[in-house]
Amino acid sequence: MHSDLRFQPIVLLLFVLLASFSAHATHIRAGEITAKRISSTALTYEITLTLYYDMQNGRDAANAADDINFYFGSVGPISAPRLQPILDVGNNTTKNVYKTIYTFPSPQEYKIAFTDVNRNNNILNLSPAPTQVISFYVHSTLEINASFGLNQTPVLLNSPIDLAAVGQRYIHNPGAFDADGDSLSYRLVNPQQSLSQDGRGTNIQYVDPNQIGAPGNTETGTSPATFSMDPVTGDLVWDAPMVKGYYNVAFVVEEWRDGFRIGQIVRDMQIIVEDARNDRPVVNPLPDICVEAGTLINQPVVATDKNGDKLTLTSTGGVYESTLIKPALAKFTVANQGALNTVSGIFSWQTGCDHIRQEPYDVLFKVEDAAAPGTPNPSLFRKLVDMTTMNIRVFGPKPQNLTGVAATDPAGTAYRLTWDPYKCQIPGAQIVIYRKEGCTNIPEDVCISGIPAGYGYDQVARVAVGQTTYLDNNNGTGLKTGVSYSYRIVVEFPRPGANINEPGSLIGGGESIASDEFCLSLPLVMPVITNVTVDQTQQTTGEITIRWTRPTAPPGLPAQYRLFRAVGQNGTAFTQIAAISTNLTPGAPDTFFVDKGLNTVANAYNYRIEYYYTQNNTLVKLDVTEPASSVRLQQGSALPNSIRLNWAAIVPWSNNNQVHRVYREDKANPGVFNRIADVPVLGNQTFTYTDDGTDKYAADGVINVPISTQLSYCYKVETVGSYNNSQIKPDILYNFSQIICVSASDTTKPCPPVLAIDLIDCATLEPDAFCNMLSFTNNLSWTYPQQVGGKDCDPNIAAYNIYYARYDSDTPTLLTKITTPPAPLATTYAHEGLKSFAGCYYVTALNGFGTESAPSNTVCKDNCPMFVLPNVFTPNGDGKNDVFQPLECPAFVQALEFKVFNRWGAQVFDTKDVNVNWNGKTNAGKELAAGQYYYEAAVTFEASKKDNKPYIIKGWVQIIR
């Protein structure tokens, strides 16, 4: 339910069917209630009740139900005729439809119900017997909410009339279709009856049909038999019935929009199981189809019958109904209808712009057999069916010819994008512009709309669907100079049939295929770092090689690269380590540097380059590169008989959607590393690999080892990345991590910090210490240990999480995350804006891979109680000291119970006002005589304990008049 309606009452609307004849309607096989809003200004709905009657056992009663009375709560009866004609839908069943128009009084959730007698007798899975006295009851739930706009419940297009056969698979699908394009889900529920005329249903004593009789087998002979409903497709499958007879089941079709359930329909239906001398036909499964709007679909459908029976192939779905979708409508043609053994049809649909939506179109195909000429004992023949559903997704067509040029703009660097007028000018649709740094290909897949996750695109703007141009100046701040930008556009659509002026209507209607990329390949006037690779892993003589590109368009020569280094992958305390002059001569050894004398065992390092050019014989800084860190390898959580590795690098290029390489030292040849695995990393997955000792890379020889907790194993990884920019060479970038040596029993994890809080010395405070203070601050500080319990702690801490709970009995929740910058990583935090000091905290540490430590010690802070009462007041009306109240200001008082007694112990006054404000009178307003009185104050102060006990203050006060 939508959150703003959560506490509103549910209104029960009873639909009571009162027949126009003396006996009630009887032998109802199935039914459901649907609703459709028909006014954009009033809460007016068309309510439809669809009932299926058993004509074999209750023809007279069913035919006599010409009129019914609808009751809406206390409103009614309202007479409504049955729609004509009565439809014969096969298998001795008729379909009766009743409609009424009703205007609901206010937006909220309504439960619409129907009940009537009777069901069929001898229903095997309902009790108590006789089942013909159990009433038939269904209900639907309708959520009326202004934020949802116009809405109609799904309609169920497939009648529940098909027979089941003993020992054969039975399938029913309701053929649900939602014209608004909302998402649907399905689940089984208990059939219900109504024991009163108030619209409330109660569960019937119900047994799963699959539990009737001895445990059975499926149609293929496996055990046990099954009975279930697919929550996504709505296929209700019983594989397979074992006992002939009547069964009743019920299921819910739930309707969802933007993550909220906005309605549900209950269908209660009867399954009749017969002994059949024939086998059911089979319709071949169909593939799901994804198309751009404007595509003509022609899908063959084939059904067969191994007995050579006569076959009828039909199809249902919203795509055939002009009341549910806009033309062009789909068609299903069967040239050899009624053929023996095999029947074929063609589903054809010319899709168009009006068919674009987020949810798929479900099209149901059903084949039914009939006795072929010459069938022995045709009276024993039972018509059986099979069905399958085809899902069709219709996306918006791909926007065409996206391009762009540099534009003059006061903000700085800007680009003017243009594209062709879009083919589908749907009112309310919007064109969404996406941008990323660097250029990259996205694999095309007609079943993937929009921008797939993991490719680094950010949404930068939305414009109306009729627009064909956009100026990107980074929202008025200008884009980066010299950076190649990739652009794509996607069109997003409103829900089908939505009123675009209503809230929430411009979302949820699906989207287009993403346009082709337009990439602004600008000259690289700045270098970019391409490699930070660890060459030597040592504590004092470690080495890292840094490489970068040579600019292509220098503004002035000679030039200079200045290389800076900071400790840590997120380090920002950069110091210059080299100045390299260059004339930008191709092939000159001026685009790499080997950084020596490092502790690559304990530290990762971060690098950046400042580029200077010559202007008026002076070196002038042009720009600074994005920083790039070395690859840091660490052991993950300890695992038995295996070693988990995690690695990370903070770099301006992308290491995603690549295959990284893992190496393990060959124990027979110390210092020689054998490549043991290639690790695909798709999207933004974590870089991780678990080594169980198996060498999964055979090209350099297979060296398998048993992973033992008694031995140490050494590893390094090689990341594979790319800028996805054709101007940056090499295209693929390889960088090694440091070497780590670990065992299966080792795990270097972040350790819990040690936390402290600034406590208050209440004894030294003045009574007015907190007067006029509107907010309070708690100051936290912590230290991070090097070792805990003799085990080393991970020294590479990237962040701290601070957790807070108002009371010590509450579960602390994440308050904030402390990350870099600043550098070094802060170990203090001021929790500001509090209403009091009371609260509890703990801190955790996180390494660069996001592994979080155990919580620190928990610290709690309490307030200083400030509540001081005087010993005298003079309620004589002179405006001075007329009221008895606390001195200064009461601080942190949560609740007060204050009582006054006279000298004989009789209570004369009480209040719960935290400021007391006693005027020297009784609660009845009678003035008290001058003299001495006694008080008792039970003061509950704001504290870190939720069940904080009141603080009792006893004293006396003198009234002077």
Automatic annotation (TrEMBL):
The organism's superkingdom is given as Bacteria
Write the record's keywords in alphabetical order, separated by commas: Signal
Q: Which Pfam families match?
A: CHU_C
Annotated signal sequence range: 1-25
Its protein name is Gliding motility-associated C-terminal domain-containing protein
